[in-house]
């Protein structure tokens, strides 16, 4: 089962040529996907040879093949993790029963919506990042951007396969619409608002891959627990690819920090002006970007109290990330102590049925995961002898949904007056000047082995390639 058939027009490990109808339907969708890729994928690099990895099996070890390919010739395909014939439902009211190989009628629309929402984010991020190649800080980074982009394209394939294979005519219609909505389009935008903001500088790209792709990781982890087995198996393999996206984010931000520290040591100061004079990014600015991206990603998990989350859990369509790590998988009479604001904006505890707090449970796991990289960056700062700590802002800061939505909080989670919040906003969030400065740094560096002034070179190459490797050949 694990072998992937690359002789087929659509590489797959789902026996596609034994289902002619499905095969034809997907072959009909394929040229539309390619048109979309050429029109809204990475601009200016369609003819470039890019050192990309392509999945050749779904084994955790040795699953990828590396080589130069032109992106439109990348072999996007359908790869599901192997089926476990003994898998049973791991949580909720149906716990212990066999998992579903077909979509139960009563869960059909919920599952379809979850798949469409997940699927919509994948091409959205490619669209958001389509101009970034033109300002890459190095060929290594350019290649990583394109690797992330082609894999998001493959994640779209993963969701489209499910829609075609299991949801009949409306599944096929939804698959078409995934190519019709466009990031930032006034009339037909992407479903989630974060995915309609352009990402036009590389610091934002690293923030996106660190924070937003990590939200993606947690959504995939929740869907990997689903009782709908084909969805679970698809997500399991997507997670293997996703790990690299977060690596790009964590090492990208880490290299920005490292470069700032080098300049700080040379100049013997941590004054932002001096750092900027040397063409690096000051840690204060970096912190404001962290505040912005972390807070917007927290909203992606949904409201703290959610009856939808409760019913997804009860019915078994969507679990908690790493469900096996929890003791109680039914959560019928347990409670969650949720912090909600009192009249003065101070936190007070509200007892919420555990099932209704599942979004919050997963968000907490996400926050813990976000801390891992932050701790590493802070270790670099400390080692360099500077007294500065990058922090994640409070969960109450700049929220758009949930009980803390719209409250004027500082990043420590203290309520301010609206007036004070507006006045001090430039301390908390990227200013016009910050963005303009970052933008001024965005000049392409395309010589093998060379790296822009604002970021340190990577510690090692992709697939052990040397530092001056030509990851992307532009003709
Ligand atoms: Fe993805
Ligand atoms: Fe991703």
TrEMBL record:
Which ranges does the record mark as transmembrane?
none
Q: Which GO terms describe its biological process?
A: phenylacetate catabolic process
Q: Which UniProt keywords apply?
A: Oxidoreductase
Q: Which InterPro entries match?
A: Aromatic_CoA_ox/epox, Benzoyl_CoA_Oase_BoxB, Ferritin-like_SF, RNR-like
The EC category is: oxidoreductase
| EC numbers on record | 1.14.13.208
Any GO MF annotation of the entry: oxidoreductase activity
Q: Out of the domains of life, which is the source?
A: Bacteria
Q: Name one GO cellular component term.
A: cytosol
* Protein name according to UniProt: Benzoyl-CoA 2,3-epoxidase subunit BoxB
Classification lineage = Bacteria, Pseudomonadati, Pseudomonadota, Alphaproteobacteria, Rhodospirillales
Task: Report the gene name.
Answer: boxB
């Amino acid at each position: 089962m694990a072998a992937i058939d690359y002789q087929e027009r659509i590489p797959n490990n789902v026996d596609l040529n034994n289902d002619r109808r499905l095969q034809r339907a997907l072959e009909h969708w394929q040229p539309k996907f390619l048109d979309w890729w050429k029109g809204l994928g990475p601009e200016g690099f369609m003819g470039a040879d890019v050192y990309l990895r392509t999945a050749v099996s779904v084994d955790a070890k040795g699953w990828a093949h590396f080589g130069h390919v032109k992106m439109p010739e990348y072999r996007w395909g359908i790869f599901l993790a192997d089926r476990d014939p003994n898998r049973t439902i791991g949580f909720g009211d149906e716990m212990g029963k066999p998992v579903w190989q077909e979509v139960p009628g009563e869960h059909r629309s919920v599952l379809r919506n979850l798949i469409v929402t997940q699927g919509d984010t994948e091409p959205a991020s490619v669209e958001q990042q389509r101009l970034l190649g033109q300002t890459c800080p190095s060929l290594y980074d350019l290649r990583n951007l394109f690797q992330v982009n082609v894999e998001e394209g493959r994640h779209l394939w993963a969701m489209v396969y499910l829609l075609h294979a299991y949801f009949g005519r409306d599944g096929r219609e939804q698959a078409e619409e995934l190519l019709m909505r466009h990031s930032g389009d006034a009339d037909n935008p992407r479903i989630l608002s974060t995915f309609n903001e352009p990402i036009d500088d590389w610091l934002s790209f690293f923030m996106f891959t660190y924070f937003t792709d990590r939200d993606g990781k947690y959504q995939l982890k929740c869907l990997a627990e689903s009782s709908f087995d084909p969805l679970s198996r698809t997500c399991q393999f997507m997670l293997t690819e996703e790990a690299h996206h977060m690596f790009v984010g964590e090492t990208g931000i880490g290299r920005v920090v490292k470069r700032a520290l080098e300049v700080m040591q040379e100049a013997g100061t941590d004054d932002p002006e001096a750092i900027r004079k040397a063409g690096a990014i000051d840690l204060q600015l970096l912190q404001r970007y962290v505040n912005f991206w972390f807070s917007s990603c927290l909203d992606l998990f949904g409201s703290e109290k959610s009856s939808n989350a409760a019913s997804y859990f009860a019915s078994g369509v969507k679990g908690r990330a790493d469900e096996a790590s929890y003791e109680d998988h039914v959560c019928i009479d347990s409670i969650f102590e949720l912090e909600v604001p009192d009249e003065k904006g101070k936190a007070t505890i509200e007892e919420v049925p555990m099932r209704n707090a599942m979004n919050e449970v997963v968000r907490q796991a996400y926050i813990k995961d976000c801390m891992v990289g932050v701790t590493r960056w802070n270790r670099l700062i400390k080692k360099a002898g500077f007294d500065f700590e990058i922090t994640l802002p409070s969960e109450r800061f700049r929220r758009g949904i949930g009980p803390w939505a719209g409250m004027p909080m500082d990043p420590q989670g203290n309520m301010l007056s609206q007036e004070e919040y507006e006045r001090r906003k430039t301390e908390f969030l990227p200013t016009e000047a910050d963005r303009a400065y970052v933008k001024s740094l965005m000049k392409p560096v395309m010589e093998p082995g060379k790296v822009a002034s604002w970021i340190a070179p990577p510690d090692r190459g992709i697939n052990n390639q040397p530092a001056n490797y030509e990851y992307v050949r532009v003709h």
